[in-house]
Amino acid sequence: MKNVYLTGSTGGIGRAIRQRLESAGFHVVPITSRLEDVDSLLREVQDLLKFSPVDILVNCAGFGLFRPHEEISPEIIGRMVAVNLTAPMLLCQMCLRTLKERNGRIINITSLEATRHSRFSAVYTATKSGLRHFSLSLFEEVRKSGVGVTSINPGMTRTGFFDDLDFGPSDDETCSLVPDEVAEEVLRIVESSGVVTDVTIQPQRVGVKRKPY
Ligand SMILES: NC(=O)c1ccc[n+]([C@@H]2O[C@H](COP(=O)([O-])OP(=O)(O)OC[C@H]3O[C@@H](n4cnc5c(N)ncnc54)[C@H](OP(=O)(O)O)[C@@H]3O)[C@@H](O)[C@H]2O)c1
């Protein structure tokens, strides 16, 4: 049975990925450290590698805050970079030797924002486009070693991601994805014999709902 290390397994997309992969026969191992705590993350992954060597690493944890740049605190900027970009890069580094031994796969959940430029999204976009380009570059480095790297760039998906934001998915269901659609893509990628390097999934229509202040 293949071992999948998964961050963000408690969130909307991560939970769906976990369920979909488990139902397809994978053994999903949630990474539970707070991702700003590098020492705890290193310890957790070193322990996991001893007993459940990784075949597939899915970096799904992340969060966003969308405001004028001057209104985002230094603490939030640092945390967004730590969780969305630094932690996935460190996890890839920690897992690479094992992934090379097992022809492994890395899947990084980025965002549609990694492919475009939106107002009030500068820091989030920087982290997600950074992770997307990290993925594409890393693949060039590790492809000869049998490792595949994928960036999945989802558009608006109906999850708790928007709970603390002043906007969210519109009531028109065609304007957002559901987590299962992203999870299905993860399964397709891990079961593919080739390497899907970059995939953007978008809802059919565009639309958001502003929340009352
Ligand atoms: N929803 C969307 O429209 C959308 C679109 C494109 C990309 N994405 C990306 O998809 C990924 C999953 O998001 P989601 O929509 O499923 O949102 P979500 O329901 O809010 O889930 C976010 C997940 O990330 C984890 N997380 C956040 N901060 C963390 C930290 N400091 N340390 C460890 N874990 C942390 C959360 O765990 P805790 O609850 O324990 O903090 C949770 O499991 C994110 O990377 C997000 O950027 C989402």
List the helices and strands and how they pair.
Blueprint: E1 3-6, H1 12-23, E2 27-30, H2 38-51, E3 56-59, H3 74-101, E4 105-109, H4 122-142, E5 148-154, E6 167-169, H5 179-191, E7 198-201, E8 208-210
Parallel strand pairs: 1-2, 1-3, 3-4, 4-5, 5-7
Antiparallel strand pairs: 6-8
Percent of residues in beta strands?
Answer: 15-25%
Q: What is the CATH architecture term?
A: 3-Layer(aba) Sandwich
Number of helices: 5
- What's the total number of strands? 8
CATH topology: Rossmann fold
Query: What would you call the quaternary organization?
Result: single chain
* Class by SSE composition: alpha/beta
Low-confidence stretches: none
The topology string of helices and strands comes to EHEHEHEHEEHEE
Calculate the terminal CA-CA distance, rounded to whole Å: 49 Å
Largest sheet, order of strands side by side?
2-1-3-4-5-7
In CATH, the homologous superfamily goes by the name: NAD(P)-binding Rossmann-like Domain
CATH class: Alpha Beta
Q: Taking all residues together, what is the mean pLDDT?
A: 98
